[in-house]
Amino acid sequence: MKTADLAPLKKDFVTALRIVAREGLSDAFAHLSARVGENKMLFMPRKSPALVKKKELFVVNFDKAVPQSAVHQAMYRARPDAGAVIHFHSPHAILLTLVGQTVRPMHNYSAIFYEGVPVFEGTGQVETPERAAQIARLLGPAKAVLLRGHGAVVVGKTIREVAMLALYLEESARLQTEAMKLGEPRFLESGEAEKVARQTFKPKSTERAWEHYAAAVRS
Question: Which residues, listed in sequence order, are joined to residue 144 by a DSSP beta bridge?
């Protein structure tokens, strides 16, 4: 992909970072990537998502280690269908892991994660390719994996999709933690959740959601 062709991707990249920051999914430490070609990705400097500029984005191949890159590179190697990856530290996703729970289907958005959301039990940072590869293997065919006491990693086909999935995951975690205060949540059965997901998670719906959140950060 030529440098000039990256302009629309860079625009979406920075918009997604602004959405993540505005919606409280992370403070200064979320990071995003987007696949460009077979073995390269568009990546960001080690900087708050609220402050990253388009001119600071850069392309790196999957074999070159740069700060915060390991989990992204591992996900692309394990998931040829992944076009974007985001790692963030949203509070309710973290909270569920602290009580040995994970996001389970219970409403329209949580049903999107009907394949399951595994929890990586290792604690601390994802600093090595070996640990990143473990997380990627644990993710399997799912859309998201939680990291115990740390946050989440989400994969999607595009930047727009992965940003919306991140928002849906945190909303699902928040509603589940609130429901647990009131009683035993009523979760959806696997088949029922998949049916709801197919009705809810469509490209047109993702685009509509993206425009909603993007409008707020453009104003």
Answer: 154
Is residue 56 within 8 Å of 45, Cβ to Cβ?
yes
Indicate whether this model's pTM tops 0.90.
yes
Q: What is the pLDDT of residues 6-45, one digit of tens each?
A: 999 999 999 999 999 999 998 898 999 999 988 999 999 9
Give pLDDT, residue 161: 98
* Structural domains for the chain: 3-218 (3.40.225.10)
Q: State the pLDDT at residue 124.
A: 67
Distance CA 15, CA 57 (A): 13
Tell how strand 144-147 and strand 58-61 pair up. Answer: unpaired
Token digits of residue 53 = 């500029």
- How far apart CA 148 and CA 77 sit, in angstroms, is 23
CA–centroid distance for 106 within its chain: 19
Cα–Cα distance for residue pair 33/116, rounded to 1 Å: 23
- DSSP single-letter state for residue 84: E
Q: Which residues of the chain have pLDDT under 50?
A: 1
Q: How distant, in Å, are the alpha carbons of 7, 156, 183 from that of 4?
A: 6, 23, 54
